[in-house]
Fold these 2 entries.
Entry 1:
Amino acid sequence: MSSLSLPFYQKHHRHYDRDYRNTQLSSTMQEYRQEEKRSTATHSHRVRSKFSDEMLETSSGSPQMKRAKQDYYSKGKENEAVDYIVPVFRGCHEYFSGTTSSKDERTKQSKSSHFAGESHSALSNTIEEHNIEKSAMHKSRKVAIRESAERISLNKEIYDTQDFHKRLREDSLLRLPEFIIKPRSHTVWEKQNVKLHCTVSGWPVPRVTWYKNNVSINVHTDPGKYIIDSKYGVHSLEINNCDFDDTAQYRASAMNAKGELSAFASVVVKRFKAEHGDLSFHPGRIAPPSYDYFPGDPHMKFEVHFVDKFNVSIGKEGDTLSLGCTVIVHPNLKRFQPEIQWWRNGIQLLPSKWVEMHWSGETATLTFTHLNKEDEGLYTIRVLTKSGYEVHSAYVFVRDADAEVAGAPGAPLDVYCLDANKDYVIVTWKQPAVDGGSSILGYFVDRCEVGTNHWVQCNDTPVKFARFPVTGLVEGRSYIFRVRAVNNVGISRPSRVSEPVAALDPADKARLKGIPLAPWTGQIIVTEEEPAEGVVPGQPTELAVTEATRNYVVLSWKPPGQRGHEGIMYYVEKCVAGTEDWQRVNPEIPVKSPRFALFDLAEGKSYRFRVRSANSAGISEPSEPTEFTEVTDKLDVPKAPSHVVPSRNTDTSMVVSWEESKDAKELVGYYIEASISGSGKWEPCNNKPVKGKRFICHGLQTGQLYKFRVRAVNAAGLSQFSHESEALEVKAALGGGVPHAAPAPPYGISVLESVRDSMVLGWKQPKFQGGADITGYFVDYREIIDGIPGKWKEANIKAITERAYRIHDLKENMVYQFQVRAINMAGVGLPSLPSEKFTCEEWTIAVPGPPHDVMYTEVRNNSLVLLWKAPIYSGRSEVTGYYADVREADADDEKWRSVNEKEISKRYIKVQGLKEGVKYVFRVRAVNRAGVGKPSDLTEPVTAETPPGTKEIAVNVDDDGVISLTFECADMAEGSKFIWSKNYEDLIDSSRVTMETKGGKTKIIFNDPGKDDLGIYSCVVTETDGVSSSYAIDEAELLRLLELSHEHKFPVVPLKSELAVELLEKGQVRFWLEAERLSPNGQCKFVFNDKEIKNDEKYKIKVDHKTGLVEMIMDKLEDINEGTYTVQLQDGKASNQSSLVLIGDVFKNLQKEAEFQRGEWLRKQGPHFVEYLKWEVNNDCSVLLKCKVANIKKETSIIWYKDDREIMFDEKHDFKDGVCTLLVQQFSKKDAGVYEIVLKDDRGRDSSTLRLLEKAFGDVISEVCRAAAQTATDLKVQSTEHGIRIYSFVTYYLDELKIIWYHKDTKLASTDRVKSGVTGEQLWLQINEPTEKDKGRYTLELFDGKAGHKKSVELSGTVFDEAFAEFQRLKQAAIAEKNRARVIGGLPDVVTIQEGKSLNLTCNVWGEPVPTVSWLKNDRELLGDAHLLLKFDSGKFASFTITDVRTTDSGKYSILVKNKYGTETGDFTVSVFIPEDEEVQVEQEKAAKKK
């Protein structure tokens, strides 16, 4: 077959022959291979060709065994002693393996080897001399020649046997280390030396390491303290100058390629009683648990605390990972050190090539040198002390390494060898969780002989079964195995290699373990009897098919009892069902092991099998045949798990539980996968199958919604995935209880809504929850036909969390019964009793249905809290509220009374006024617009009494100011949990509070108390008789708690004022602080830039303990004084400090101010201002600028400036009381600016500036507006042609004065009909076309920017009538004026035109009705003709045209327009001129005419 036709997985692949050992194992194998090469080179030249020819001749014959012939080694005469007998088995396989098949034969071979190696020469000489002497005396020549030939042949065989044993492969002699002499314990005195010895055997030569209390001894850390020596197979540890700290357990660890073995010895160092008393050895440091004696005080207790604990870790294949934590033991005694143990999944770990352990005395670490998926599991550190032990556990997850081929599956894991025999072993493994996106086609099994790096693939085609028999092994050699998975894309990485396994008979292994490994020193066995004739072995027994799959069948049997002294082999025969034709399966290669795997059987056919034994004497009769066995997988793939239910655990993990696969055989475990809801991407949660029905999935994203699914795995393969679970948000659970049992049945099933084909059920939660939260419910229903119930049917496949569920696809008018089951972490509970019979029919009522899930909590002597859920059926409108009803339990229905008089919208109410000791029942009714609906089911009767031992929620503020609510419960059950809620709803925003629970006490801590935390906080304890309590935090309570928190958080000396600075008169700087109280013992320190200030000439410090005033005065503030000033107060336990930072601009400003104060003091020595320039507004709205001066004399000049321009010079000084003034009339924007007044004489100069700009100017304007508003006159009413005007006058009006008009207290907006404005000093409101609606009170508000000033007038009655009549009169006049005929425009006053030209004038005319138009010349009416064209178009445009202007056309023209409302004229003058030349000619013509 060509390589192109091979399946891709049989071609050369990158994973093939890949070395998968760690560094330590590779180093050991390399050392072994070098030693093997040296040994092979030494002995190879001694191999004889004749021996090889004999072996080939023996092995080339027919497979049919022959009768045994007499061995030529034993030929001789009767009564003649034979010196040495070597039993020979004529089978080539024994020579290749180098090991015989029985203990006796191996013993003889060992003796022969020893004899041949030590006494060959002497024995040969002795035999030769003896025979020569006898030959000379008694024998003939023929006999002598025959004997001589026999001696030569014997010597040759002895030599060949010796050479054969020398060339045995050393690797077939590999064996575990074994202590021939173990180190023994010692008890010594202090300052003595002690030496521990041991002798170790094994091949390769083991390497010995010494440990003290499981810590490797390093001779370099304490030179001279320890001496480690290894010579001639003897290993020693010498401890010099022993002291008490050397009391410990010492361990010698021997390790080679086969494994590791340890031996322990204790060293006890004693002290003389005269010094410290006799202190005996304390093996509790790291002694095995079997040592359980502890000297010292028997009542001494050790407390163990874990610090810096290792948490859940997630690694990747091939990574290095360390787990560690700090262990604190109290009291810490050097001679009583703890023992550190590491466990994985309940199995204690020991140091190996995969894990390293270290204990420094404080820190314990477990290091994985090369992570594999086999390392996944729950890791526990156990610290053993005299008082017991403490543990800490966390899970380690190992993710798959990146596939070398994208889409290839993950590597298999847990490769293990079973049922090893001479040439056969079964390799098992576990399937990977990741298939790469396509189904796994099967697995390849690879083997590698220990000591080499050559991997050989054991199967040509992939096997799907996770178990495979490997045959063709060489007896006596050791092998390691690995497995690779294959899918349509490629081949996975190889698994971690298995532990080495030797191809030996199990009986031989047991005998080898019992044989001492010291050299054999017995005598050579010499017999005078000839060997017995070979015995044909008996038939094998107890033949059975141990395993059958579609790929292979495994047979096992017991060797025959009659087997002779030779090793035996086996032939396997098969027979197809329906025939009697027996075929030998292995005709060429006999089987040595009582195990055999048959391949290449026809799938689906049935076979019988039998076995024959064989040796050199012949072949036995066949064994009893097996029953017919069909070639198919006997082990089925498990069924998918069911009922996958997630529940919250932490903010990054969730607990997933499921129901186990039904009828699963040889179940290995389960794989769990998770997917973010909506992503469609599934990720494995575990890479190592887990057993049980519950698993914690870590590494999830907080706040995301996750779905989960589970599948089972056994050797036959992986099951289908279970149904996906419901999506659940990842967040920390409120409790952490461990499930104990399935919950009790629910009860109280009722119908909450019914339509034609569905019904909504409600029920009450079980009274017993099984020690864990109820995670869901399952509903079943059945039909009732003619009173006969049918079969139960499942209404839901996935568990529902609410206690209300709609069942679909029901039959209208059919009668049904229902039952409900609850589920928790422990599983599904028993179903409830069947409900009442309900008919599926449409509800048509308008009122809402009954509320459901009514329950009570916080039962006290005279109160309780009632909770419920909204009705499913809301009626024909939404539910608007609820009524809660109460009556005594044994009272009639007429005794129901409502708890609340008005409906409430909340779904909880506190019922008060109950009688102590009386039983009550409650119900709730919903309300909508149609009315009050059906009442809910009654609650269980409850007695109004406070349960004994009830404690209320207490609010606490600790010394750190942390506010918390605490609740205690002394009657908690094993699975009880504290459930906190806010306003009787789940605490959704968990960031606001932190919950802590320890034992029977819980509390919530407010992380950042604020208004968002207002509400009623309640706590319920599950699995109790309703233990609960609540605490209300309103605004007043929150304020109280915050104040109390502040007091506790900051225990300080209370201050009236913080550190402040002020300037004194002469520019001195005063730092001061005032405390509310300061005892006589109170201390004070001034610190400047972290250096304490002392009381000296520059700094004057004073402390007044009575008033609490602390001050420091500086004469002058210099540049070096820039920095931070701090006052530190200490008064008993209370302390406080206050700092003042004077840097940058702050310091510069203060420094400038100090200089200014100093300058002020100097300024006041001459003319100066006592009061600086300021302004005030007079009643007449004028602005007066004034200031007060002092120390003025006649020579002092006073000058006023505005914007640096002199505006007034005061020479008279005629002011009174030192007040200078400047009056500004009608202040407006033009008066804004900078005003300055300057005082000057020979003593000095002083000035005062007033900036009337921006805000300051706005303040002045506001005050002027106020004064102007106060001058407003009363409102008056005036009629106009448009309507009625209301007005008022002010003395002075400016734009900044805001005007607002009101009509009947309603602010008037400006419209086309109602307008307001200002004309001059008049403020007016114009009401156009007034109507009756305009009657009423009108108010004028003048707003000055700060306040309003109002004036009002009543416009009604006579005032309105008179004003309205006047308005009508004026309106008519206005209409007449408006509609009268008029000339709007278009005519010039004078028109000058040249004679002969045309004149065309047009003007606009207006009038309603359209006026008549006539034209006049010199007050005479004109009539149109050909020379004069008169037109009037559209009633608007009047035109006047003279076609040929003449001088006679000059004159005064008028247009006269007239209608019934009036007449108007428009005048213009036309002047006609003649050009100069024409004018002279005309004059000449006139003169001629006159002549």
Note: Residues 141-166 form the longest helix (26 residues).
Entry 2:
Amino acid sequence: MATKVTPSFQKKRVTQIKTDYRTLHTKHVVKQQTTRKSSSTSVSQEQAQATQAMAEPAYTIPAFRQRSADEVEEYQRVSIHVGKGLAAIQEELHRMRVATKTQVDNLAMQREVQDMMTKRVELHEEVRRMPDFLVALRPHTVWEKTPVKLFCTVQGYPRPVVKWYKDGVPIDPPSTPGKYKMENKYGVHSLIISRCIVSDTAEYSAVATNQHGTATSKAKVTVRRPAGGAESCHLGLVPHLTEIHPSKLEVTLLDRFGVSFGVEGGSISLVSTMVVVPDLPNLPPHAQWYRDDKLLKPGKLAEMTVGGGAAKLTLPHLAKDDEGLYTLRIFTKDGTAEHSAYLFVEDAPPSAAGAPGAPMSVKAYDINQDYVLVAWKPPNTTNEPTITGYFVDKCEAGSDTWVQCNDSPVKVCKYPVHGLSVGRTYHFRVRAVNSAGISRPSRKSDKVTALDPTESERLQVIKMGGRQDIVIKDDDLEGYVTIPGEPTGVHASEIFKSYVVLSWKPPSPRGRAPLWYVIEKCLAGTGAWQKINTAVKLHSPRYPVFDLEEGKKYQFRVFSVNMYGSSEASEPTEPIQKVDEQGIERPVGVPSAPGQVMATRNTKSSVFVQWDPPKHTQNLMGYYIDGRAAGSKQWFPCNHKPFKHTRFVVHGLIPGETYVFRVQAVNVYGLSDESQESSPIAVEPALATPSAPFGITMLSCDGSSMTLAWKSPKHCGGSKINNYYIDKRDADTLDWKEVNLSGIKERICTVDNLTAGIFYEFKVQAANMAGVGVPSAPSHPMKCEAWTMAEPGPAYDLGFSEVRSHTLVLLWKAPVYTGASPVSGYLVDMAKKGSTEFVSLTEEAVNHRYLQVSGLEEGESYVFRVRAVNGAGVGRASELSEPVCARALPGTKEIVCGVDEETGDVFLSLEACEISETSKFVWSKNYKPIGDCPRVSASAKGRTSRLTFTNPDKDDLGKYSVVVTDTDGVSSSYTLTEDVLNSMLELSHAIRHPIVPLKHGLNYEILEKGHVRFWVQAVKLSSAASYRFIFNDKEVTSGEGHKISHDVNTGIIQMTVDHFTRDNEGTYTVQIHDGKAKNQSSLVLVGDVFKAALKEAEFQRKEHIRKQGPHFSEYLHFTVTEDCVVMIVCKVANVKKETTFHWFKDDEEIVPEIPPNVMSGSCALPIAQFSRKDHGIYKAVLGDDRGKDTSLFDISGKVFDDIINAIAQIAGSSASDLVLQCTPEGIRLQCYMTYYTEEMKTVWKHRDSKIASSEKMRIGGAAEMAWMQICDPSDKEKGHYSIEISDGVQTHTRTFDLSGQAYTEAYEEYLRLKAAAFAEKNRGRVVGGLPDVVTIMEEKSLSLTCTVWGEPTPEVTWFKNEQEVASTEHTRVTFDGGKFASLVINKVTPEDSGKYSINVRNKYGGEFVEITVSVYRHGESIPEPKLAKTPATTPMPPKSPAPPSKTPTPTPPKSQTPASSMKSPTPASTAASTPVPKSPTPTPKSPTPAPKSPTPPRSVKSPTPPRFMKSPTPPRK
């Protein structure tokens, strides 16, 4: 096709018109924005200016309206619609030319405009045309991995829309990021295919469409692979590419790493995905990582990778040194692309409770031959005791042995380490100390080598003027020197409370012999010098002095010594005094507290904190920021490494929660006092104008008006959106017009006064407290044409609720345009994000506007669409929903059902994981807002909302849901069933009508001296409880002979009778009142029982007189046998045959199988299968007529742990190798041992990683076995498994390699067992609904209906007297929905009596159920039901469970309604039948019910406890 040439005067005219309209449009936007602001909510002047600035950028012509200078038709279209404003344009042109150009240029431009006016009429005839390609596509043949560009030029009016296709399939660039790039510049449409591969060989087509027709241009693209295939490409042979530097790549960052949180000792990865053009595998972009603006280098502590569309930084061994602001900088064609986010690293669990965190940033300074100065940063302390000092450790490089350098903790963050070996390389680390213990060690410092730093200074270089220089030492210039000179410049370089560091300059002349130094000290002014380093040869001009007395001043001098002798003494130092206790002479110290702390809003989970620096900074290292929730006393650290600036963003806060912050300054001396606390602040986003709405769609049109809807802005700006403003324009003009001057509250609006047949564009702005936000992108052109189709319009406002890992609820609104008949239902489709393959979620239209969607993949994103249905058919599909990711919000909680402990009210409650100031809890029932309803009342307090039922009954059953507005989708639902409601009502009744629950009724015991104690124990007593004892109808008070008391902690109420005589025979009663609750308990003490008690009391009185008696020589202790039996052992003395021995646990007597033999001198109580149930206080009582003795042994705490460790030592030694066992649920590894209990410290590991018990990996055990089960195994679970049994001293390990043939065989066995279980689960069966016996009068209709189940759907066959029943008018057989099977007999006759049965069967098996039908005539009495003999059942698979158990029920009397007790999942028949129902069977809640256990045959009755059985009562003590 020939290319048309546009005249030059037309090109200039089009350019000038664009410029003029851009200027006019900018003015209009400013005016429009000013008008709109005046009608919105008033805000501050700064906010208004910010809003105006956001709306004032110059107008940019949209892509679909960009004109090409080569298209004559474009000029024609523009000139037609500019005619009306030509005069105004000429005036504007005249004003601009006067200011910028000469009069001659102005006159020339006017002549050009007049020439264009004369040609406008001639061009009118060519305006409206169907699309036509001026430049068509051409074929291309390219090498593999090279790009190709297809382009074409198309004309037509209205401007055609161009879409690209590959072999007839639309091309979707978002589905393959970086692969395709579509452009439309100046009317030239292009498609760029990056890095072609062989599969890109196809026929590509560009399809141009407007309302007048369609045009297509096609071209073939062939991608060739050179000989040798991919191998030669990797070698760089073909194709030949010019060298591309990383800075020439186009890089666009996509998913970026966010604020991250790690723990010391763990690992973390920061990943940012990107699109690189061209994407060359052997030439990745050049990326750099920074921490706090310091470039990071790859190493063991920082692993960096770039490639595969991602840049990744992995920190495998986290320490607090790694905390900071991380920046990824990638060099691109246009400069650099950067992204930054903060990484927080919190302290690992301390070695002891309350111990401080580890120090950080350990570095070595002032490195000498045998001396180095180590410095570090102190850790933050919030709730821990104050740090009292630090220990410094050293380790030679290549060794793992650490040696502590200081005997007592040093209190400042510096320490001089001396005594190093020359030439050795060292690492250093630091540990903090407080009253609770010692911290974990810090990360070790970089390695340093002990060398003489002055060695290089003693070299001189003599320039010879040639290519070689001469290097000599100072020793060569000094001549032959034997005795060295004295040191100079002796002074104290470090003065601290713990030590003083002396420094000096080496002597000159020095001599060639090895040199060392001797230091002397004396009290200032005394002249009594004494050596202080006699035991060590000091080679470095540094030395720390530790043993100085407080408050005294010292002077120091230094001697140089070598093999020839000693030098003269150096000049003594000035008097030096250490820092005293009060710090009066301290030159420096901890900084003062920071100033005022202010916290302001930042985001929904972070707060911006800033503060004033302290008045006395004193070499600050930085600041620590602490926070706490309002109302709490526990502070938590906001940062774990000193932060250098006076402003900080605290992340990881709970949305909606209120916090208080404080700041401490840090220097080498430690932490300052805390600053004053900030004002409480709620975690909310900072106020700003909302972002742009989007998704403008048309819901209806009548030819003169359009109904529009749109989606809310993604960012509301921190306050509720209260208004929307709409602008419109003709699609062929640039001038926008306001639709509404006053704001619209809803996201739907009808725009009136439109012209039929015209295309319109719309844009929407949202407004909140901060002002009016930026406008949305213009909608696509919409034609004002009346809708007359019979089908309904699109549904709209698709939203989501209850988004979880595998489920969500989709909600939508009904169409505005209903079509020729009302909407009868909706069809819902779903597709993965980026895919065009939609899957229908509804086989039939649903009649409600919500849908529970299940079966989602966790972490996958989905889109949905909804189509309304009416009598005429299926209507237009809705706009696609926003992509939703199947992942629950962090911290999501579900609705809980409970009963108020105070009032007894039944309620539903939800605690939101996030909330904002404007959030509201919206409750719904069956997804319909509840609103004001007398049956329920909603309340909210903080983050929790409660829906309370006024008088709950069956009408309140249903599905309740709640949505928290102005959040990221916090929502939940709860189905209130009849069973749950009944349980709640029972609990409510117990709360409203309380009793004091008793742990033990009134009882008695005989005490020493013959006292008798009457006692009762309540489960719980309050301090306000009251009680009274009654004896023979008379109240007993505390006084002479009676002591009455109670213990609130134990709930015991007791009365002690000092003199128990015959007058105490009778009935004892105690009455208890505790608030609204009350109870009483009685004890009858008469007859033989009383005599026995009286006798025992008298005996105890006599025994008390005796002072001598048996006793324990060794108190109770424990041993463990080889069979893991715990023995509680004691030794006794001064015993005789009559001496008694009793065991007790928690005051309950224990009777061992083998009675204790006190004559043997020792007694033992064996405890087999010891576990936590054996916790308690054990007591041994030894007594005879001379007296008694008692020994107690408390098995809890450390004693319990010691017993468990002793058992673990024996069990671990006896543990067998791991054994593999397959089950239908997965693969189980078992370890047999002498005894196993869950209290033993056992750890299962997979590939050296600890396994936590979960749905995937289940951990448990039995008495002699520990096991770990892998549920639903996959290849990921292959590998090395081990179990570790720790006894506190050593660890016993058993391993198993689950890989290779072992895994293959185990997996095949698991699949076999799983298939067998699946078959049993899915066989056909009758779930419920059939009676055993039916008695019915003739001429009535009989309906036998039951619910059947099976997967796949089973076949159902009815039999009468073992003959198959065919469906006739008299006998109708139905099977509805694969679920409900019915046999209906119309007008039964005596001939219909007989034995009926149903056979339900599928490929996995089935079930055969019988029913006996008896028909009696009019006037006859109802016959007694008789169960027929069980007939021969249909053969069943061997593993199918038996039919459900039924308990026959007698036939009800005639006075009762025969069918009143029938329950069926289908509507009840009107027949007057009298069935004998089975035990009620609930309707299964899921379409695939799985019975928990095989059900016994019908003839088996439910077990009933015999009448003579009674509830057990505790024995009397």
Note: The mean pLDDT is 81.
